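Following up on my earlier thread - several people asked me to post the actual chain instead of describing it. Fair enough. Here it is, all 154 residues.
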Amino acid sequence: MGEQTIALNRRARHEFSIDETFEAGIALTGTEIKSVRAGRVNLAHAYARIERDEAWLVAADIAPWAQGNRYNHEPKRTRKLLLHRSEIDELLGRTKSKGQTIVPLRLYLTARGKAKIELALARGKQLHDRRRDIAERDARRDVARELADAQRGR
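Reply from S.P.:
Thanks for posting it. Predicted structure:
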């Protein structure tokens, strides 16, 4: 079966230049994992933060589970990320010294049913960087279109 992607953060790749990616576990409650399996997750405004020597996922929106009762979870609560001490230390050093941020790229379920999150060390893009990326993408699309037309004999 493999991995099943639940949520993508397309906004992160648009607003940040990705330097390095890594994966982390995420501590969820019972109703949260049920909502994740139902695909009711939004990572658009989420980010990760190192605080008190622990990693936290902030502002990730996991919708309340429809069949939840009074024990249902808070949708935008801060959730703990499960990383090794050495990974947390490295992230803390890189975010402090180089001015990078930690953004989530995607949330997925492993073959064993565990929720994992792919994080990235990223640097914010300036407006001219975004425009250059859009221009390069358009140029690649035009070249691919011309090649396809040439192969078809047009």
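The chain has four helices and nine strands. That should answer part of your original question.
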